[in-house]
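Revision sheet: structure tokens.
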Amino acid sequence: MSIKIYNSMSKKKEDFKTLEEGKVSMYVCGPTVYDFLHVGNFRGAIFFNAVRNWLEKNGYEVNYVYNYTDVDDKIINRANELGITPKELSEKYIAEFEKDYSGLRLRPHTSNPKVSEHIDNIIKMISSLIEKDKAYATPSGDVYFSVENFADYGKLSNKNIDELQEGVRIEVNKEKKHNSDFALWKGAKEGEVSWASPWGEGRPGWHIECSVMAKEVLGESIDIHGGGLDLVFPHHENEIAQSEACSGKQYVKYWMHNNMLEFGNQKMSKSLGNVKTGRSFIEEYNGEVLKFLNLSSHYRSVIDFSDIQIGRSIASLGKFYSSLKHAESLIAKDLALVPVPAEFQKLVEECTKSFEDSMNNDFNTADALSFFFELMRQFNNLTRKPGKVKPEYKAIAEVYLSWIKDKGSIIALFQEDPSEYLNLLDDMLLRQKNLKREDIDQLVKERTQVRADKNYARSDEIRDELAEKGILVSDTPEGTTWEVEK
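Predicted:
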């Protein structure tokens, strides 16, 4: 099955065929670096990491560009508030983002261009657009793109320029030829960082920045351009206009847009007070939970970022890592080498094909994850049985562990040490319940002693006390263990 991608331009799934055989050029709009990123910003980072990994798994050489917007109104305003330079502010939050990104165990991008590194190239593209009569300078030192001089304007968002004012806040500017014309260059204002240009001191507009960085790093035409659904208009629409008006070539072959997050069916916004940063989420929960929650939904669907969904992700991760820990314990046993039972081997092959079909079908990670669940259920059914451990359990465990790690690496899940991760989950849940590990250990130790003393009444009392706290106790041949109910 060939890879199919839903193209936001055509509004349908298309067979994936690259501009250059065996190579993929992919540009994804990165963050404007003036603060910690909110959790919604990480959806694209997590999803497009899986896209790149799957393309490479299929033999493509991927040049993955993820930019940093370090010249922007928000950066200038925040820097002025803090009394520091925009460069100091942007460098700080680039470093903070990269810390979070690395902590999520997502692979580094091929390159991370910054706007501030491409000012000369931006000026060159703007000059070219003016020469082609696609843009014009104003007496105040601004330069605008002329939407009326680009026949295909609105083809991505299906917007008509004569109707754009309806429901859209566009600042009225008497220097514009059309009210929907957008800024390529902004004349310098007091207190703002600026650069010299043919139109006077100033700085680039937002949209031209991505067009130039994509062109300089990947070329005039690229295979995939990704970003959040909120960027379709005006950002990506304006990128198309600038780039194609300048080059005369198709800018992007496949447009991909991930959908938004909602908090209890409400969009995240500062006015509602429900903005949560990725850093705070990772500290309260952890990165594996953030990835699992994002990948459990199709990238084009809305995610309800609720406590219920977070709880389900934690519970699922607990089950997976418990199964991986069990697999490791079976592999460590000194048992005879026997073939993998045909029943389980057949299931592995079926899950492999189904996983591949799901990823080939517009990178459907939600569907792909269902086959992880299926394999886990069968692994547990076959190996978690009372009585003596059989040699075939070890053979099953080796295949299971290898499959989960291999397929999990594509979506950046299930790569943690199982024992350590289960402890991390328990510690996280203990904090939420205002419990201390040492207190639980002490109760379990007391229970072990009273059981040895055959004081079963007290043993049952302690078990009930722990159960009320949400602690599950298991008595095994290797001793008593406990975990937090997930």
